[in-house]
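Deliverable D2.4 — example input (structure tokens):
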């Protein structure tokens, strides 16, 4: 099963983006993919229970969790996350 996300971002600190990571574009891609995989293992694809989060039934809630999960890592690279969608 393949999971994917769109992360819209921009460099806000060029010094940090240049010197803290070798390739900020690749860094964002790897961190985003890692966060998606982590969420895919923590939440079921579908659920019968309304209170339980699922990847298909709660895309906005899962996207919010994805955003918070990658925010800290992106800040370390001088990057600001503008938006996240599954």
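Example output (designed residues):
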């Amino acid at each position: 099963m393949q999971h994917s996300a769109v992360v819209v971002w921009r460099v806000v600190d060029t010094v940090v983006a240049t010197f803290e990571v070798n390739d900020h574009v690749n860094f964002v891609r790897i961190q985003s993919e890692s966060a998606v995989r982590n969420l895919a293992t923590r939440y079921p694809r579908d659920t019968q229970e309304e209170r339980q989060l699922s990847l298909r039934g709660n895309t906005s809630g899962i996207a919010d969790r994805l955003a918070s999960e990658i925010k800290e890592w992106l800040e370390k690279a001088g990057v600001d996350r503008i938006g996240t969608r599954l």
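The longest strand covers residues 79-85.
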